[in-house]
Amino acid sequence: MKLDDLKHAQRERLIFLDRCLTWRGMANRKDLIDHFGISTAQAALDFRVYLGLAHSSPPTYDPVRKTYIAASEHEALAPSGLTEAFDILAGVDEDTPSSALPRPERKADQRTIAFLHQAIRSGNAVHVRYTSMSSGADEGQWIAPTRFTSDGESVHLRAHSFKRGEYRNYLPIRIDPDSSFEEKPIDKPLPEDVDWNTRAIIWLRPKTGLSDEQAKVVRREFGFEGEWLRVETRKALEFFFDRRWGLDTVGARLERAKTDYEPI
């Protein structure tokens, strides 16, 4: 039996159990009971299934602490990053403020998103009014939406701007929901979106000026396997990459060593 063979609900419980053992180094039935509200019998069954799956490096039961302790050579069944496992470490205490900062919730008009999606599916141009943070509000323009993209925090729209004669990234929330959203067929093929069809291979290194010890920590933090860290994205998303990774911010820990481009 494999983890993927289990039904969704039990698979989620075993992934939680696996993360407890991976990041806490211990787990017991109470963890499952408190987190999922299941019975003691079900928690015991989940543990038996987990032990069967983790046969190569199973945890051992400590009768004094009444908990399972991860093996020194523990191998996660479902590898996860520390951010994914944060809730495992933080715990839940409803009487105090959260130990995690609130994330900004980016609103979106559902009707606007639906119009844009329909334009993508139909291959038509759509008329919208857009407010830019650099040039302000326009009187309306025709765009040809091609796809939605994400920078990990916000959803963006990739579209050809007939006004600018180029492909651009738009934030749907900045499209006026009272736009006409009139559609029209595109009378000739759109130009190739060269930036979208170009892979950007970004080579990162610790920021110049860090001490040897600081650079060593940065390499460990970001999982360097050599002198530089290789990250791939599309050329069209490079701007978002730099911002998300904080490359141009005060106190940045990473910088570009070089960037290679190749067609996709």
Automatic annotation (TrEMBL):
Q: What top-level branch of life does the organism fall under? A: Bacteria
Question: Matching InterPro entries, A to Z?
Answer: CapW_CTD, WHD_CapW, WYL_dom
Q: Where is the DNA-binding transcriptional repressor CapW winged helix-turn-helix domain?
A: 10-77
Q: The WYL domain covers which part of the protein?
A: 115-175
Q: Which residues form the signal peptide?
A: none
Q: Pfam family of this protein, just one? A: BrxR_CTD
Domain named DNA-binding transcriptional repressor CapW C-terminal dimerisation: residues? 202-254
Recorded protein name is WYL domain-containing protein
Q: Which organism is it from?
A: Pseudooceanicola atlanticus
What lineage is this protein's organism placed in? Bacteria, Pseudomonadati, Pseudomonadota, Alphaproteobacteria, Rhodobacterales
